[in-house]
């Protein structure tokens, strides 16, 4: 699936639609928007262009020098993270290089997601399945799965994707994205599934493109270095300053007003903050398909119980339809992409009396603008390659 779904149950509090100009488009708007797309542009590119694109998407990685046997810190952090290089990712890459020498076959990657192809894929598939089966517990299996996914995507994307926007170099959108500072008391954590890492239509990447890698931090599911870094920050902040944007069916889900408003009212300029604490509010956005998000949320809850003997606090948003919905449909109209969830969060925080002067709405607008740039870049690419600019969703009755 090419979805990067982010789903939240709408809370009962009504929010003026004028404050959410980007999110609350109606389904009818999207039908009109895409029906007006000039169809002639589909024919503006020759079959030669499409053939060249297919050639470019089949990439061979050779291991004739030392640089190809590992991922450097500079390369790793160039993809949007501040962590050290995960040791298991480099171990997987070393194993791939050894296998290449053993079977005398080159690694080749095809498509957009760093997938191995050809004879090497057949042999590697046998080897990694045997390795996975030999691992003794579920934690080792999760870490190996994640490291392998990420290692293949890193190698398959070298020299092909832009490290900042994760689009093919010829479609790079970075020059059209404007950076903006996020309010210092808000930090967003993108808890990303490894199958969404380096995915071109991922919208979570826009958050650190706009706000920077220290304000919007990437945490990859199953990567020990990332998860430890994130939980170190959460433990330092304390459980009352960490929220997850996720519909927890087993516990009450709070609105932004009910969940964060009382905290701000009771802690604004509070002298009780110790030297080991700060006043940063941490928000976790789960960045993965809806089917993967349940396991990701469960992992977060297990760690919260271990660290705090308490569940993560969950909040819901008044989200509408993201502009990305038609290009990359969600299971239903009330579910939205990761960037749109961040936009909704910032708009709702702006409505709180204690934050009304922070201009979080302008920070939300910066993400809106970047999301529109991404939509345009993806649409242009699909048209150039002769592909449809819309995809069928699961609920056909909801999408015109």
TrEMBL record:
GO terms for biological process: tRNA processing. The lineage of its organism: Eukaryota, Viridiplantae, Streptophyta, Embryophyta, Tracheophyta. Its EC number is 2.5.1.25. It is an enzyme of class 2 (transferase). Residues 158-387 form the DTW domain. This is tRNA-uridine aminocarboxypropyltransferase. GO terms for molecular function: tRNA-uridine aminocarboxypropyltransferase activity. The keyword Protease does not apply.
């Amino acid at each position: 699936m090419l979805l990067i779904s982010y789903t939240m149950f709408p809370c009962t509090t009504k929010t003026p639609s004028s404050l959410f100009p980007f999110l609350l488009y109606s389904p009818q708007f999207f039908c009109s928007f895409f029906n007006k797309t000039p169809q002639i542009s589909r024919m503006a590119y020759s079959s030669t262009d499409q053939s060249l694109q297919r050639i470019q998407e089949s990439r061979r990685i050779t291991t004739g020098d030392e640089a190809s046997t590992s991922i450097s810190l500079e390369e790793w952090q160039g993809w949007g993270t501040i962590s050290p290089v995960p040791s298991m990712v480099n171990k997987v890459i070393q194993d791939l290089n050894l296998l290449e020498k053993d079977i005398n076959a080159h690694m080749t990657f095809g498509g957009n997601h760093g997938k191995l192809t050809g004879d090497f894929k057949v042999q590697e598939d046998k080897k990694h399945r045997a390795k996975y089966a030999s691992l003794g517990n579920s934690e080792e299996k999760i870490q190996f799965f994640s490291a392998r996914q990420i290692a293949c995507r890193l190698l398959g994307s070298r020299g092909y994707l832009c490290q900042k926007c994760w689009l093919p170099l010829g479609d790079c959108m970075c020059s059209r994205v404007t950076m903006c500072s996020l309010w210092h008391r808000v930090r967003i954590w993108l808890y990303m599934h490894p199958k969404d890492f380096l995915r071109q239509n991922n919208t979570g990447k826009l958050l650190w493109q706009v706000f920077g890698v220290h304000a919007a931090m990437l945490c990859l599911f199953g990567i020990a270095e990332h998860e430890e870094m994130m939980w170190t920050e959460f433990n330092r902040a304390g459980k009352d300053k960490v929220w997850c944007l996720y519909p927890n069916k087993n516990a009450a889900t709070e609105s932004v007003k009910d969940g964060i408003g009382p905290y701000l009212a009771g802690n604004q300029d509070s002298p009780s903050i110790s030297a080991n604490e700060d006043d940063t509010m941490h928000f976790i956005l789960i960045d993965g398909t809806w089917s993967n998000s349940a396991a990701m949320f469960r992992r977060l809850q297990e760690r919260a119980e271990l660290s705090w003997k308490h569940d993560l606090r969950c909040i819901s948003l008044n989200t509408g339809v993201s502009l990305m919905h038609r290009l990359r449909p969600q299971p239903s109209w009330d579910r939205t992409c990761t960037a749109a969830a961040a936009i909704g969060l910032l708009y709702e925080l702006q409505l709180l009396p204690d934050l009304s002067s922070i201009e979080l709405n302008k920070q939300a607008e910066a993400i809106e603008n970047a999301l529109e740039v991404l939509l345009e870049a993806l649409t242009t690419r699909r048209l150039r390659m002769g592909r449809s600019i819309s995809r069928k969703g699961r609920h056909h009755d909801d999408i015109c």
